[in-house]
Specification:
The protein is built from 15 helices and 14 strands. The protein is α/β, with parallel strands linked by helices. Bound molecules: 4'-deoxy-4'-aminopyridoxal-5'-phosphate.
């Protein structure tokens, strides 16, 4: 690996101009992050000429691989026709058809630009529709950087020790009830006490923001039941799991239909777009039919919409082979890494599903935020750094998920396992 002189210099310049030198906190890691020049397939190339096998994959936004030609070509074709119109387009209608065809709960669609925007609008919709104020979320779930959900949040918020952000008004935080994930008893207790004021239960059906944490058997069904009994809406935040677990996301995989779902990341094929989807009678509470306001200058812009149509079309075409293959290679890679750790004294636990995996530096099975937090983060940091030196880029926090893409080759996987083997000597 070439010494990262240019990255070091860029970081110095960046730090005097941008807080922490970055535009999203989790991108910062010690002593400074490498600065990426370009990406292609499974690789990132930095400004110092280093190449990395990427398992961050734009924090899960990339499923096919960076710069996937079938998506890029269609997007390039769109650029000549315009980038933002401020009027409806046929492409938005086509995308809404594709979304309602593939996501079980999607009867109607409202497009937005980022995951945070989608969950913000979905929560407002739930409050407007039910006339209730309270929100139930789960410790360690991350739903974007906005006030109602920056309470005991995962992702960068957990990594930097500010799960409940300063600046969130107490009046807002107090309307967000935080429960431990995968704990049915805590769920029932909370709803017995104050269930009838709850507008929505929002959950990552598979947590991706404390590392990967899977729902225990029957847990999502229990959330559905409690929501039905109390009149709360069930919102699945599928910004990570949508189109990654399968075409119909986690709701299809587990056979639980939420009232609303939020989608983002994979759906845009590398471009910024998100969606709120759900039951017709709830969705029609959105303005201009109903009185819940949600809007955006760039919502449904033709560039991102074209990328999303190309992505969903490719996914539809490739689905039977693609998802099976991704699951197989991810499970294989995880097992190979675990086997290497088994030959050491370092205690680890792995969670994996579809193309997502996390190696937790703890002996305990990781089933919620508390068990994830039992991980030895200083060993994770050493591991991350040792891998980076060997040309493998894992997301820089114990509480983020590794993503495998369709462009990761046999050779990439083999080389990753060799790098892990050699990195272990530095722990
Ligand atoms: N929900 C989930 C489940 C996420 O993982 C994220 C981002 N990691 C968000 C919402 C927020 O999305 P964005 O960063 O696009 O605002």
């Amino acid at each position: 690996m070439a010494p990262s002189l240019k990255s070091a210099r860029l970081f110095e310049r960046a730090s005097s101009l941008m807080p922490g030198g970055v535009n999203s906190p989790v991108r910062m890691f010690d002593p400074y992050p490498f600065f990426t020049k370009k990406a292609g397939g499974s690789k990132l190339h930095d400004v110092d000429g280093n190449k990395y096998i990427d398992y961050c994959m734009g924090y899960g936004a990339i499923l096919f691989g960076h710069n996937y030609p079938p998506i890029l070509e269609v997007v390039k074709g769109q650029l000549d026709s315009g980038t933002v119109f401020g009027t409806p387009t046929e492409a938005e209608v086509r995308l809404a058809e594709l979304l309602t065809d593939s996501v079980p709960c999607a009867e109607m669609v409202r497009l937005s630009n980022s995951g945070a925007e989608a969950t913000m609008h979905a929560i407002r919709l739930a409050r407007g529709y039910t006339g209730r104020r309270r929100l139930v979320k789960f410790d360690g779930c991350y739903h974007g950087a906005h006030d109602s959900v920056l309470v005991k949040a995962g992702s960068g918020a957990a990594s930097f020790g500010v799960p409940t952000s300063r600046g969130v008004p107490e009046e807002t935080a107090k309307n967000t009830l935080v429960l431990p994930y995968n704990n049915v008893q805590a769920l029932h207790q909370a709803f017995e006490k104050e269930g009838h004021g709850v507008a929505a239960i929002i959950v990552e059906p598979i947590i991706g923001n404390m590392g990967v944490i899977l729902p225990s058997e029957g847990y999502l069904q229990e959330l559905r039941k409690v929501a039905n009994e109390t009149g709360a809406l069930l919102i699945f935040d599928e910004v990570i799991t949508g189109f990654r677990i399968g075409l119909g996301g986690a709701q299809e995989y587990y056979g639980v239909k939420p009232d609303l779902a939020t989608l983002g990341k994979v759906m845009g094929g590398g471009f910024p777009i998100s969606a709120i989807v759900g039951k017709r009678k709830i969705m029609e509470a959105f303005s201009p039919v109903g009185e819940v306001y949600a809007a955006g200058t760039f919502s449904g812009n033709p560039v991102s919409v074209t990328a999303a149509i190309a992505t969903l079309t490719e996914l539809e075409k490739e689905r039977s082979r693609l998802y099976r293959n991704l699951e197989k290679i991810t499970a294989g890679l995880t097992a190979n890494i675990m086997e290497l750790f088994a030959g050491t004294k370092i205690e680890v636990h792995a969670n994996s599903i579809a193309s997502m995996f996390t190696i937790f530096f703890t002996r305990k099975p990781v089933i919620n935020s508390e068990t994830a937090l039992s991980s030895d983060r200083s060993t994770f940091k050493k591991f991350h750094r040792a891998l980076m030196k060997r040309g493998v880029f894992f997301p820089p926090s114990q509480f983020e998920t590794c993503f495998v893409s369709a462009s990761h080759s046999e050779e990439d996987l083999q080389s990753t396992v060799e790098s892990v083997d050699s990195a272990l000597k530095e722990l």
